[in-house]
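ARCHIVE CARD
Drawer: 12
Card no.: 0347
Subject: one protein chain, sequence and derived structure
Cross-reference: see card 0346
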Amino acid sequence: MLSVIIIAKNEQLNIRHCLESVAWADELIVLDSGSTDDTVAIAREFTDKVFSTDWQGYGIQKQRALDHATGDWVLNLDADESVDERLKEQIMLAMASNDNDACRIPIQMYFCGKPLRFSSSPSRHVRLFKREGARYSADIVHEKIVLPENTRIGQLLAPIEHHSFQDVSHALYKINRYSSYSAKIRLKKNNPASMSKTLASSSWMFLRCYFLQRGFLDGKEGFLFALLNAQGSFYRGIKQLYPDREIDKLP
């Protein structure tokens, strides 16, 4: 039995496509954190397991969603992600073979509706796993799935499709939000920043995305995606030097 867990807030533009792509799963769980659009209404068209809660950060939200799951296997999706037929078949085969207890799934990034074949498409993240003994870290952002010792981890080849940036304004909104979360974490860990480190980090991010990951092969979208990632790294450092006025009240 497969449970799909999704956390969401104001995702009416994405949630339908996400849920349609996994309608074949045994259980769909949507954890909403105060949407003011039609996210909840759309989700209820697909499942009666739609829950509302306050926002405590990505790790805690995903653990809350995981707590509602009853399947032997769990697939973790963001509301702006989807599963195509090829990935569906690989997930079904992985669960049936029982050769592994968890699987890493690559992420196919999309920018303004265009697939990026090279730019920042990670493959190391565990998204499919057996529920027993699994839990999420409590990190505000960049949460991790914590699995039992001796977990057998495999690798699927077909990617999750991630429509991360719908347009430039949406990209800037997400960059602002994520950089605030990351700065908050680093400030609490007493991880000092400097202008030189901030400039070096943002330069390295651009070089990594555009050259090392061959983002230049994605054309102008690859260039913009690398530039936006570098911008996020820059703002994270600047917000450590000049913290948000209500850094402790970030949602």
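Annotation on reverse: The chain has two domains: 2-163, 167-249. The two ends are 34 Å apart (CA to CA).
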